[in-house]
């Protein structure tokens, strides 16, 4: 009988081509795309990986080096900085 | 004018967003900026003017701009270079023979002593006590 955690589609199915037959492997899913904290737009320059790969990658490759990088989109940072200067 | 020479601004876009700079020169619809940012030509849409104007010449150098900013009590950040530690090179030592003793004699004496010691230990461990 098939296992319950496989039936529920919790894991992702990956088909690997071999020399004679195709092999099926189960892998864990990645997290969703990162979004802007203000407008909810998808953020560029950020990566989607499993935690074992995020641990080894450098911090500069995970988010942009701009102010509010990885939190707000570039258009919202412009608005936020203008608001702070003019107040 | 708003974007005149000596006007202190803040960069809004790019990797230097949120840093203060000073307008030094103009060049066909672009402004040349300096200060806490790298000296570069910049679009005026990427700047937000502040209400401070410094007294500097047209095309002033970076050191002149930074000294003028210090007089106005604005924050100036200087890059600090790390000092490299000077490591001493390892000195090679020539191998020398010990005086009066040959290598062959040394090896033969070592083998004899090692064999004897192992045999004695084996006997002690293997033989059960009566």
Q: What are the main properties of this structure?
A:
heterodimer; A: 87 residues; alpha+beta; two-stranded antiparallel sheet; 3 helices; 2 strands; elongated; B: 130 residues; SH3 type barrels; five-stranded antiparallel β-sheet; 2 helices; 5 strands
Task: Write up what this structure looks like.
The complex is a heterodimer of chains A (87) and B (130). Chain A has 87 residues and is an alpha+beta fold. Helix content of chain A is 26%, strand content 14%. Chain A has helices at 4-7, 51-56, 74-86, and strands spanning 12-17, 22-27. Chain B is of the alpha+beta class and 130 residues long. Chain B has a domain at 7-71: SH3 type barrels (Roll), CATH 2.30.30.30. Chain B is rod-shaped, with a radius of gyration of 38 Å. Chain B starts with 6 loop residues before the first strand and ends with a helix. The relative contact order of chain B is 0.13. The mean pLDDT of chain B is 84. The interface between A and B is small, with 10 and 9 residues.
What's the short story on this structure?
Helix content of chain A is 26%, strand content 14%. Chain A has 87 residues and is an alpha+beta fold. In chain A, strands 1-2 form a two-stranded antiparallel sheet.
Number of strands of chain A: 2
**Cross-sheet strand order for the largest sheet of chain B:** 4-3-2-1-5
**CATH level 1 class label of the domain at 7-71 in chain B:** Mainly Beta
> Helical proportion of chain B?
25-40%
Oligomer: heterodimer
When the domains of chain A are counted, the total is: 1
Return the structural class of chain B.
alpha+beta
> Helix share of residues of chain A?
25-40%
- CATH fold descriptor of the domain at 7-71 in chain B: SH3 type barrels
Tell me the span between the first and last alpha carbons of chain B. Answer: 111 Å
Q: Which two protein chains have the largest interface (Cβ within 8 Å of the partner's Cβ), and how many residues from each?
A: A-B, 10 and 9 residues
In whole angstroms, the N-to-C terminal distance of chain A is 66 Å
SSE arrangement of chain B, N to C:
EEEEEHH
| Average pLDDT over all residues of chain B | 84
Write out the strand line-up for the largest beta sheet of chain A, numbering strands in chain order.
1-2
Return the structural class of chain A. Answer: alpha+beta
With helices defined by DSSP (H or I, 4 residues minimum), what is the helix count of chain A?
3
Shape of chain B: rod-shaped
The beta-strand count of chain B equals 5
**pLDDT < 50 runs, ≥5 residues of chain A:** none
